[in-house]
Amino acid sequence: MDQSSYGVNRLAGKVAIVTASTEGIGFGIAKRFALEGAKVVVSSRRQSNVDRAILRLAQDGLGERVVGVVCHVAKAEDRRRIFDEAVKLGGPHILVSNASVYPGNWRISECPESVWDKVFEVNVKAAFLLAKEVYPLMQKSGGDRIIFISSLGAYLPLPILGAYTTSKVALLGLTKELAGEIACENITVNCISPGYIPTGSSKRVRLGYFKFCAPWFSVGVTTLTTTKSEKRVRGYSAEQIRNSR
């Protein structure tokens, strides 16, 4: 589906941070936000990925709305870098915590401690720290949206993805707890749980009894939760993919 016809400037004047946004769902979200009029901080752990994503967005006429930053979300200095860029642009108003790692297939009973620690450091701890650190900045900028990207695996856990799916369940708890804490400050916290989308790590763990779904579906749901008309959406919005089995 061509998303270019969907830009109606619903996010004009907003500054968004989207982590891990140089490919896959993250790139789709960043592009859609820019099409909707937002200025977007795009990030990846690799400079080459950042450069490639910025070039693609520039070719779509969105170069003036995006800035690229190298960021490993588990590193404090890198998180400060993306926040600094967002502040320069007048934000941040929106945070999409999309970064996650999938270090291979491990049953919980066989998962090495080092693998477990890596998964939770990036998928959960970094998400917590991003939200904690963006909160005072949003208080100053008038920001009002924090979105975590979980997974359908949080609802349909699979033995071979033990550490990964457990980390995605943890994001649901983080979302609900944080949503309740800061709701009175007019900041909503939501969680999107995409199904199996043919990008990145999903391609490496293709399971025959699940259907792939289109990336634009997750992008659309994420964009919807950032618009003013959907301010009433709180807690968590789980994107349950119909006919996923």
UniProtKB/TrEMBL annotation:
Keywords: Oxidoreductase. The keyword Oxidoreductase applies. One of its GO terms (molecular function) is carbonyl reductase (NADPH) activity. The keyword Nucleus does not apply. Belongs to the short-chain dehydrogenases/reductases (SDR) family. This is Dehydrogenase/reductase SDR family member 4.
